[in-house]
Amino acid sequence: MSEEENKNVIQPEVDEVEVEVVDSQEAATATTKEDELESYTKGVSKRINKLNERNRLAEEMANRPDENIRKLPNPTSAEHIE
């Protein structure tokens, strides 16, 4: 192109572009720490749930003998005397 043609070509306006540089290693480390915390939290929750279930079952088992004793016939009652 000649110099005259270059003058006649309309150049588009360029907006200023802001670029933020982020260290990918820092971003990966933050994500890794969040994942590690989430994993740890899930593990703790599972252990707590297991302990709660064991305690609930132990309470049920402890209450069963009382129920079974109540169901047994009372040997001093008049119904059982022949």
Radius of gyration: 39 Å
**How confident overall, as mean pLDDT?**
77
Helical residue percent band: 55-70%
Secondary-structure-based class equals: mainly alpha
Largest pleated sheet: none
Gap between N and C termini, in Å? Answer: 128 Å
* Total number of helices: 2
- Residues in β-strands, percent: under 5%
The 3D shape can be described as rod-shaped
Number of strands: 0
Low-confidence stretches: none
In N-to-C order, the SSE pattern is HH
Walk me through what this model shows.
- The protein has two helices and no strands.
- With 82 residues, it is mainly alpha-helical.
- It has a domain at 38-71.
- The chain is rod-shaped and about 125 Å long.
- The termini are far apart.
List the helices and strands and how they pair.
Layout: H1 3-8, H2 24-71
Descriptive labels:
82 residues, mainly alpha, 2 helices, rod-shaped
Give a brief description.
The chain is mostly helical and 82 residues long.
